[in-house]
Design a protein that fits this description.
Layout (H helix, E strand, L loop, with lengths): L8 H11 L4 E4 L3 H9 L5 E3 L7 H11 L5 E6 H6 L2 H9 L4 E7 L2 E2 L5 E2 L8 H8 L3 E5 L2 H13 L4 E6 L13 H14 L6
Parallel strand pairs: 1-2, 1-3, 3-4, 4-8, 7-8
Antiparallel strand pairs: 5-6
Helix pairs in contact: 1-2, 1-7
Bound molecules: thiamine diphosphate (TPP).
């Protein structure tokens, strides 16, 4: 039987944005934000520069403050491992409108490919379950990702999804003006029609 290849982060990000065009998307400092920018640059995208580990925390705050909106966090394994306490707090406060996707390539790709703990002994999906997440998925192929997304976007979360990805580099660079990104994002948050009911 032919083995399907690992998920390509850009392809999966494109699919996600097409499937959830109104969602507010927080993208972590690794390649998550570069690939998100490569799909298109929109006010709904909150690109995080440098603050490794804070994407899930920012997504949590946003999901709690905007319960009518679908909030999606796109982070790398390095980012999520930098701040595992965020998993605990998300699980405990449990906003149903939060979907946290970890692009797990087993490395800090943006800074040169140093291996992360998931390249050896650490299982982020198991960490999510241990933190108290009731909804956890682990996927390795684009078809599993696309099928799973239907559930993750429609069944109340919070969801933690660990997606094993290949090591393709990201092709685009997001805008690098954090104040501008924040103001543009705040404007769309306060004017968007609710996407999550
Ligand atoms: C506290 C802190 N440590 C290190 C960095 C440098 N840094 C920026 S992105 C990155 C790699 C992030 O890895 P991951 O989240 O797995 O994403 P990937 O690069 O693999 O896409 C690192 C180490 C930083 N910004 N902040």
């Amino acid at each position: 039987m032919k083995e399907e290849k690992l998920i390509n982060r850009l392809e999966a990000t494109r699919y996600l944005v097409g499937r959830a065009p109104q969602a507010l998307i927080v993208a972590g400092p690794g390649n998550a934000k570069f690939d998100l920018a490569a799909t298109s640059d929109r006010p709904q995208h909150f690109y995080i520069w440098n603050s490794l580990g804070l994407a899930p925390s920012i997504g949590l705050g946003l999901a709690l403050a905007q319960p009518e909106q679908q909030v999606i966090v796109l982070d790398g394994d390095g980012g999520t491992l930098m701040n595992p306490g965020a998993l605990v707090t998300i699980a405990r406060l449990a906003p149903p409108n939060l979907l946290h996707i970890v692009w797990d390539n087993g490395q800090y790709q943006l800074t040169g490919g140093q291996p992360t703990a998931t390249a050896t002994v650490t299982d982020l999906a198991a960490m999510g379950r241990g933190a108290g997440f009731q909804h956890v998925a682990a996927v390795t192929t684009i078809s599993e990702f696309e099928t799973g997304l239907e559930t993750w976007l429609t069944e109340p979360g919070p969801w933690l999804v660990v997606a094993k990805i290949d090591d393709s580099p990201a092709p685009a660079r997001p805008p690098k003006d954090p104040v501008w990104i924040k103001l543009r994002f705040m404007e769309i948050v306060t004017t968007t029609t609710p996407a999550y009911t």
